[in-house]
Amino acid sequence: MKIILLFLIYTLNAHAENLNTALNTVGYKNDPLNNGLMLKNIQRKGLKKTFTTIKFELEKNIYELEVISPSLEKEYEHERKNIIGVILKSYTDQPTPYQGEITNITKCSDYFKPKVKESILIGSKSISLIESFVGKDFNYGICEKNLIKYSSCSSFYYDQDKSQILKLKVITSPSKSCEKMSVGFFKNLHNA
């Protein structure tokens, strides 16, 4: 029993250290989630850029941070607009697969459509965020209450000091505020 307990303590500490180390590799001093459990840390080097993806979990919430460096602010704007556009497009009116007398188009009510928030202030900097409901396979375009499994936030932050784009995706229960979690993450990262 004592050996198993020591192994569990070692494993949890190793995950925390790995998350701190992973965040350190992209220039941040400590874990803004206070010891989240790291699930994935992948670094891909391109010809001119490095893409780092760090996926971690805390209290049954999944966080996935992608850092692209070096990056210019105009690249950040392009990346942000692109992702928000793709998510919004999956909630637009669609032709029905079997058109009939009742309707030719399926519509998504405003309740299910994503909410976009530009310029949420964090200190002297700001993030952009899109919050939406997703299905069991983390798919967008869910417009029926019985198909909603999670709430998802994709948030975007440009760190001028480090010339990095930070994209954070938070997946949580639909009853929780992923916006609050995203803002909290960036506030803690900013203060680290």
Quick tags:
two-stranded antiparallel sheet; 192 residues; 3 helices; single chain; alpha+beta; seven-stranded antiparallel beta sheet
How would you describe the overall organization of this protein?
By secondary structure, this protein is an alpha+beta fold. It has one domain (2-191). It is built from three helices and nine strands, in the order αβββαββββββα. It has helices at residues 2-25, 73-89, 178-191, and strands spanning 37-45, 50-58, 61-69, 94-95, 105-106, 115-122, 125-134, 150-159, 164-172. The strands form two sheets. It has a seven-stranded antiparallel sheet with strand order 1-2-3-9-8-7-6, sandwiched between helices. The longest helix has 24 residues, at 2-25.
Please give the domain count: 1
Major β-sheet profile: 7 strands, antiparallel
* CA-based shape: globular
Mean pLDDT: 81
Strand order of the largest sheet: 1-2-3-9-8-7-6
Order of helices and strands: HEEEHEEEEEEH
| Cα-to-Cα separation, first versus last residue | 37 Å
Q: Radius of gyration over alpha carbons? A: 19 Å
Low-pLDDT segments? 1-17
Q: Would you count the extended β strands for me?
A: 9
Q: Which percent range describes the beta-strand content?
A: 35-45%
Assign a percent range to the helix content: 25-40%
**What is the count of helical runs?**
3
Overall SS class: alpha+beta
